[in-house]
DNA sequence: GGACGACCTGC
DNA sequence: CAGGTCGTC
């Protein structure tokens, strides 16, 4: 049976992009409640579905590594279709002689990948797009920190928290599930939603992976079925919103909201059942390119009051529309056009599961942390730096060891 | 504009 | 109660 990929095992093919941990922290970004579909399948390895493919991601200090699994049936067909269209010839990227000498060939190793150069470039572009790597997060952190001492304090530890650019449909219907709910339960619900209504892609170890359901799958499903799966009153919202989109706007409507102004997109979303101000702001920020959208929930309201001495609206019992507007404007004035990105950093830093990161005083990983392994990683990094970008690397930690010995 | 209760379920 | 929304007053 196919297994989850691990970078150090050398059993799967990995590629990489240059990307520092200051620009991206997978552990924070993928588990802070933006997307609910990534799981840590091995230490520092995150597996999830994105763009119709299953990915395992991991990172070293300067690189983002990724492995893509072959889907059950579709991929070969897709590939040949594409080649017929573009006339690009096939090339074998991972030749036997590229295998590290002495590395044992695993039984479960995949057949050598048959991939066109265009596929590879397309996959890299999907990653860059999903993580919005064109946005220089370090520069933004510096700007936010310059005008906001509290942000500077938090940002020192919570580096690399970056906004994902999610699929609008997945984002919308995931966030319809978030009302009156908490992350762990939301994760389970979204998973069951994909299991029940999404197309199966393939199975790794004991886990099956599915695409997020299409609008029509969501619309055609009846409420009772979803209620049985534990969605509660949200079952009706999911079905009705999907139906409303298809009936009154059409299948491309959501994607089209990427190119309309923030407030217009937000109002459009709010016409859907189960979508209020908070969910609409989440969808705007996380899938519709509205970096200025600042989703205000009870949690963010607490942050505003506690850390920013935010007083107006203190009399109110719950978050009113006016408080939404006022706090949103407050943060937009403080942080500027990427206010939503900054908010996600503070939100992440406030999550219970990340509190332990605050405990250890943040030593710049200098002496103590430099164990033998990280030295070898550094050596490994040096050795491949020149050829890293867009080069297929099939390498294992044992290879790093070898190179380390050469270097030192 | 703001307050209130209901809405599903599970920890 | 929990990372809300809706209908009603």
From TrEMBL:
Q: Which UniProt keywords apply?
A: DNA damage, DNA repair, Glycosidase, Hydrolase, Lyase, Multifunctional enzyme, Nucleus
> From start to end residue, where is composition biased (Basic and acidic residues)?
94-108, 359-378
Q: Name one GO cellular component term.
A: nuclear matrix
UniProt cross-references to InterPro entries, sorted A to Z: DNA_glycosylase (IPR011257), HhH-GPD_domain (IPR003265), HhH_base_excis_C (IPR023170), OGG_N (IPR012904), Oxidative_DNA_repair_enzyme (IPR052054)
- Start and end of every HhH-GPD domain? 177-344
Name the chemical reaction catalysed here.
Answer: 2'-deoxyribonucleotide-(2'-deoxyribose 5'-phosphate)-2'-deoxyribonucleotide-DNA = a 3'-end 2'-deoxyribonucleotide-(2,3-dehydro-2,3-deoxyribose 5'-phosphate)-DNA + a 5'-end 5'-phospho-2'-deoxyribonucleoside-DNA + H(+)
Task: Indicate where this protein resides in the cell.
Answer: Nucleus matrix; Nucleus speckle; Nucleus, Nucleoplasm
Q: Name one GO molecular function term.
A: class I DNA-(apurinic or apyrimidinic site) endonuclease activity
Top EC class per UniProt?
Answer: lyase
Which residue stretches belong to region Disordered? 94-119, 359-387
Stated role? DNA repair enzyme that incises DNA at 8-oxoG residues. Excises 7,8-dihydro-8-oxoguanine and 2,6-diamino-4-hydroxy-5-N-methylformamidopyrimidine (FAPY) from damaged DNA. Has a beta-lyase activity that nicks DNA 3' to the lesion.
Q: Which family does it belong to?
A: Belongs to the type-1 OGG1 family.
Put simply, this protein is called N-glycosylase/DNA lyase
List the lineage, top down: Eukaryota, Metazoa, Chordata, Craniata, Vertebrata
């Amino acid at each position: 049976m196919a297994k989850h990929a691990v970078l150090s095992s050398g059993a799967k093919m990995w590629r990489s992009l240059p990307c520092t941990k200051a620009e991206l922290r997978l552990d924070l970004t993928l588990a802070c409640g933006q997307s609910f579909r990534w799981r840590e399948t091995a230490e520092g390895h995150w597996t999830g579905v994105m763009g119709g493919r299953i990915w395992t991601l991991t990172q070293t200090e300067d690189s983002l590594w990724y492995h893509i699994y072959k889907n059950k049936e579709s991929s070969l067909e897709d590939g040949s279709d594409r080649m017929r269209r573009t006339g690009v010839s096939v090339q074998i990227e991972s030749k036997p002689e590229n295998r590290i000498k002495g590395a044992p060939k695993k039984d479960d190793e995949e057949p050598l990948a048959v991939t066109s150069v265009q596929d590879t470039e397309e996959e890299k572009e999907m990653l860059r797009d999903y993580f919005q790597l064109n946005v220089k997060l370090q520069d933004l952190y510096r700007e936010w920190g310059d005008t906001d001492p509290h942000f500077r304090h938090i940002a020192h530890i919570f580096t690399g928290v970056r906004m994902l650019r999610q699929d609008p449909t997945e984002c919308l219907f995931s966030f319809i599930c978030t009302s009156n709910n908490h992350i762990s339960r939301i994760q389970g619900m979204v998973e069951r939603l994909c299991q029940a209504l999404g197309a199966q892609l393939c199975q790794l170890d004991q886990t099956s992976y599915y695409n997020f359901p299409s609008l029509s799958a969501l619309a055609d499903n009846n409420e009772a079925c979803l209620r049985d799966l534990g969605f509660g009153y949200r079952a009706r919202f999911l079905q009705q919103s999907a139906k409303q989109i298809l009936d009154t706007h059409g299948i491309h409507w959501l994607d089209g909201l990427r190119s309309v102004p923030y407030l217009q997109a937000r109002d459009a979303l709010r016409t859907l059942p189960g979508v209020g101000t908070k969910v609409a702001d989440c969808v705007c920020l996380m899938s519709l390119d509205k970096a200025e959208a600042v989703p205000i929930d009870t949690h963010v309201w607490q942050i505003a009051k506690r850390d920013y001495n935010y007083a107006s609206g203190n009399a109110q019992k719950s978050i009113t529309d006016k408080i939404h507007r006022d706090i949103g404007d407050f943060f937009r004035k403080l942080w500027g056009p990427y206010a939503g990105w900054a908010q996600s950093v503070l939100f992440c830093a406030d999550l219970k599961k990340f509190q332990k990161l605050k405990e250890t005083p943040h030593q710049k990983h200098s002496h103590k942390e430099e164990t033998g392994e990280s030295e070898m990683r550094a050596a490994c990094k040096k050795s491949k730096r020149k050829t890293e970008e867009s080069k297929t690397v099939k390498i294992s930690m044992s290879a790093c060891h070898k190179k380390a010995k050469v270097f030192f």
